[in-house]
Amino acid sequence: MAYTFRNAWVVCLLVLGLALVCRRLPGGETAGLDARERELLAGLSSNPNDGLPRRYAVAAVVGGEAPRALATLGTLFSKELGGKGSARLPQSAYDPLCRAADAYLLLRCHRDFARGTPLRRDVAEWLFDSDAHLALFMEGISPEDDWPACYRLIETLFDHDPQGREAFRGLILALALVWDQPRPLLHNQMGPSPPKDAPDVPRLYDYFRLLYSSSRAKVAYGDLSLVVLTFVVDVPVPLDELLWVQKNVKGSQGQWEQKFYDITYDAGRIDRGQYDWPHGSYTLAAIRDHGGICVDQAYYANVTARAYGIPALLFVGAGRRGPHAWFGYLKDKNRWELDAGRFAHDKYATGHALNPQLNQPMTDHDLEYLCQRILDSAKYRDASRYARLACVLLDLGMTDQARNFADLSLEQVRAYVLPWRIHEEILRGQKRSEDLLKLWDAEANAFRKYPDMVASLRQKQAGLLRSLGRDADATKLLERQEDRLDPDRDDLARRLASDQVRQAYDGGNYALARSKLEDLLNEQQAEGQKVLPLLDVYLDLTRETEQTTEAAKFMKRYTDGMQRRSVDDPRTRGVFLELLIRAYENAGDLSNAERTRKKLDRLR
After folding, report:
1. Higher pLDDT, 320 or 552
2. Could you say which of 189, 242, 341, 389 would form a disulfide bridge with 307 (CB–CB 3.0 to 4.6 Å)?
């Protein structure tokens, strides 16, 4: 997978630099900024714990002086670290530098992503009233967030709840990070009357503030990190739906998977091929009364969990008999249940969900990494701080010290993406290809519990090897990785083998590309409908490369085997017959295409 974890966004600071036209501060405020500048440039050791870099950055953000303040902080880092080369600093220097780095990142992000949007002074001084709160903000927000919209939502909620805003700071930030952009429907099979009129953000804030202040919440608010809260507040449904849950749905957090099975499965809809909701308005009450198919069961369980403050996600995945939906939720303080409603016998290797903050795809395997316990430990917090400092130093061209702090980060947590990306940036910049290959080996070892990460690293290694003219080494690398995969991760096997098909195609060896794709399809024949996307690719590739005669012969043998495997499933047999018709039509064999079409008609 492409790394999408909560701090990976900081790498973007290495390549983004959109300068904005700055506004001058009024004379008195300029004088105040000048005074703080002089204090800063006197050195961090003279003011190690007073939050001066943060207060200076906040004043610059409020006054539109981010570019000026960035230059000042750059000068400060040069003064503190210039000439020290690769020497390790004393431990006492780390904390002041980390705090200054967060101030730098705030200024850089504000300049590059806020697009000139000012942040009110009273809100900024509350939002960044301590170094810890500044770090919380920097760890949570990303370039993909709409910074101006986030600012406006934070200001709205700041004004909305003067008494409760301090106690519910995390809730305010989570709502701003999720609702800074329009919320999509939680799935696309809701029929012609999906939920409408989602509550505005202040009403949603009131709902969750009241919930978490009461005994009705199934999870203690204090047990939820900012990132995990985003998996609660993404409820694009009318507020009445959430209130209905509190009146009509009961249960304990640890047993919430039962909500999936509380909805009677409507097998008749599947038999009729009626996958969209057919019963009028798509409400939780209607789902309970009429029953539903898997996506309705997963939706019901997901929304009812979130209505009680339980973090949850709706997953979809491809199985041997076709697509399926299930849900995952926070089962207890330190453990996620990601298989609620997932049918093991159909071998759903990977579930796909939508990251509520970024509106980007994520998998259940991403979530395992994101929410593992180490990410909320003291070691992770130190690793995160050192990595952010390393990003700043690399941005300022202090490569040796950036490498040192990336190493310090990895000494705290090896399975943490950002410091590895910093090392990668350094080696790429220095064009040290062999060292880069070794780096990815070390990173793969650190992430050996996360096969998606390892697969991505091996693909990067293979790409670099090919660019060096070492095609055979690239092929062997991917083949070895395939051999090491857990048999249940057939999706990764397809991904790695497809990389080899693509390389053969890009190199103009179309016969080899076809042969490798046929080998992959034969290896995955037991996976049923999971191979359908591969078959689509196969038919397109062979048509484009004028190998349709060979393709028709292969497809006849292949689909005969797939039909024998699905003898009791007419729908699946029909899908493979349709693909065989395409293969015959591509080859211009209209006689066999018509004969197969008659067989398909009889099956229906």
Report:
1. 552
2. 242
- Has residue 1 got a pLDDT over 50? no
Q: Are residues 164 and 245 in the same domain?
A: no
CA distance 60 to 73: 12
Q: Cα–Cα distance between 236 and 175 in angstroms, integer?
A: 12
DSSP 8-state class, residue 12: G
This prediction's pTM = 0.82
Instruction: List, for residues 417-469, the tens digit of each pLDDT value.
Output: 999 999 999 999 999 999 999 999 999 999 998 888 898 999 999 999 999 99
Total number of domains constituting the chain: 3
The string over 359-372, giving b where at least 16 C-beta atoms fall within 10 Å of a residue's C-beta and e elsewhere, is: eeebbbbbbebbbb
| pLDDT tens by residue, 91-135 | 888 899 999 999 999 999 999 999 878 899 999 999 999 999 999
Q: Which of 333, 355, 375 is the last residue of a domain?
A: 375
Which residue type occupies 571? Answer: R
Distance CA 173, CA 303 (A): 21
| β-strand partners of 304 | none
**DSSP assignment string, 214-249:** STT-SS-GGG--HHHHHHHH---S-HHHHHHHHHH-
CA distances from 12 to 15, 188, 590 (A): 6, 32, 53
Q: Give the strands of the sheet with 322-332, arranged side by side.
A: 335-340, 322-332, 312-319, 352-355, 360-363
For the stretch 126-163, what's the b/e string if a residue is b when 16 or more beta carbons lie within 10 angstroms of its beta carbon?
A: bbbbebeebbbbbbbbbebbbbbebbbbbbbbbebbee
> Could you tell me the maximum CA-CA distance found in the chain, to the nearest angstrom?
88
Cα–Cα–Cα angle for 583, 584, 586, rounded to 5 degrees: 65
Per-residue model confidence as pLDDT tens digits over 323-359: 889 999 999 988 898 888 887 556 665 778 889 998 8
Contact 572, 322 (CB under 8 A): yes
> Residue 241's domain spans which residues?
213-375
Residue 1 in domain = no
DSSP letter at 325 equals E
Residue 101 tokens, joined: 């780095």
Q: Which residues contact 173 (CB under 8 A, 6 or more apart)?
A: 136, 137, 140, 154, 226, 229
Q: Name the token pair of 177.
A: 């990070």
Domain boundary among 352, 375, 398: 375
Cβ neighbors of 543 (< 8 A, separation 6 or more) are 551, 586
